[in-house]
Write a structure and sequence with these properties.
single chain, alpha+beta, 23% helix, 8 strands, 155 residues, Pnp Oxidase, Chain A
Length: 155
């Protein structure tokens, strides 16, 4: 798994597309899937933050998603799809790392495009796999997804 800036260096075009889709509404918006204690999936809307070449999410202290990420850092992040022609989707999987460093927290809070509160818990989302989906044949019976994928190097 790699930090966002290494994904950008390895695959600049998909990374730029992903950033555009994550921030298509100005503020970062996406769905975050985590793994519950019983192994089941949990899905939450979040406001991702890009700061100094890294991708983060902030969660309130009582959120089940922060408990999930502390216990089992696996996640999937999916952009909000738009129900219109030429819409696209961007999906990332990887592992989240808890960030407690005060100066790094301040930097991320300063780069947040949403109203973040200092009590929120900060996680960096490391990137393992990425998939960008576009749609061919919109509005027809031949509608089909076209996927472009990237995987972090092993090692």
């Amino acid at each position: 798994m790699v930090p966002w800036h290494e994904f950008v260096a390895a695959a600049p075009e998909p990374a730029a597309t992903g950033e555009g889709l994550l921030f298509q509404f100005g503020v970062g918006l996406a769905f975050l899937a985590t793994v519950r204690k019983d192994g089941g999936p949990r899905l939450h809307p979040v406001c991702p933050v890009l700061s100094h070449g890294r991708l983060y999410v902030l969660t309130i202290p009582t959120s089940p998603k922060q408990q999930d990420l502390r216990r089992d850092g696996r996640y999937a992040l999916q952009t909000f799809p738009q129900p219109k022609p030429d819409s696209a989707e961007f999906y990332i999987t990887g592992r989240a790392d808890l960030i407690e460093d005060p100066s790094l927290r301040r930097a991320v809070f300063n780069n947040a495009k949403h109203k973040a509160h200092e009590s929120e818990i900060l996680f960096e989302l490391k990137v393992d796999r990425v998939m960008h989906t576009t749609w061919e044949g919109w509005g027809t019976a031949e509608l089909r997804p076209l996927h472009s994928k990237w995987h972090a190097p092993k090692g």
